[in-house]
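Task card 7
Instruction: Convert sequence to structure tokens.
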Amino acid sequence: MKRGQLAFLTGTHIVNDLYQGAVPALLPFLMSQRHYSYTAVSGIALAASGLSSVVQPLFGLLVDRRPRGWLIPAGFLTAAAGITGAALADSYPLTWLFAALAGIGIAAYHPAATNQARVAGGQSQRAMSLFSVGGTLGASLAPALVTLVVGAYGLGGSWLLAVPALVTALLWAARGRWLRYRGHTPATPAAARGSATSSHRDDWRAFGRLAATTVAWSIPYVTVTSMLALHIQRDLHGSTGTGAAALTLLTLAGAAGTLLGGWLGDRHGRMTPIRTGYLLAVPALAAVAFAPSVAVAMAGAVAFGLAMFLPFAPQVTLAQDYLPTRPGTASGLTLGLAMSVGGLAAPALGGLADAHGLRTVLALVLGVLALGLGSALRLRDRVLPEAGPEEQSEPAPERVNEQAATGAAPGGR
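Output:
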């Protein structure tokens, strides 16, 4: 594991997903200061998250064709420009377009950065979990930063939100110059170069089963995060603060689950956290859906967040090993398109909640999660052999020059 490289990439992940979390954090200010309706702000949220999920696999395809390390700084800089522009725009169409730009930047970052994190961590699941938790940390910091900046200076001071991206971009550029000074020539793994050996062939059937499992993960998770606070307030008669606390605990438990899943994957194999996570998530969600009291619901939320994120990092590396010649496509589809299904299903589930109540919706997604459990139990691990001497040759000079110029990670893409 290249710890310094992984730590640096995790820092960029914090910054990138800070802007992902900034989108929902800005919406209350847009409603209060520009008098946007719920429909209008929902459109802004969809412009950022929906478009990001759809285009992310396309960036994965680009990354698989040739190393594009420059997409990492370009991604979080574009996301920062989009968020700043959305806050400063003086019309709804411009606000929507800038939110969409932020979504594109967020999407551009992930496949390239995930590939580099995988190379930096090698076969370590803990390494991927550390990188993944950086995104969770960034998203959790966003509400506080947005509230601090916009609350103090109004939407006109939102240009300050771009400072983290600018500082990180300067660090990225300095790092690239340092690598060139040291004469670093990163090696490219065989899988990243598109090896066609029998041990590195893509297994689309297994990947399809994993994608279906991820979809069955996405729908319950998005539903619970969007309805948990309302469930506690309306069905269990808790306070607004209690509902917000439950969401915070769920998020923190998810971060802990991500780290624990990586540790378990390294010690017992990555199928252990994947299967254990789904096995524990089903009763945890049942505790939330049918909780007789606020205390039970909050305990269920903590258990749900922990269990749901045990498989997160191992699923990413498993997807890349199912498609070893297309790791960017694998991460883009797993983290992007499959994950977006939960958001796409949200309006229909919201209508069902209006008609039949929140408990009905939570019971329905409990069934979806049970299907995900069945699919997860059918997954099989795939361990690729280490690259042989013939697969460890130095890349062509033009590729080396490009990687050095773009700040490509040592030993990575």
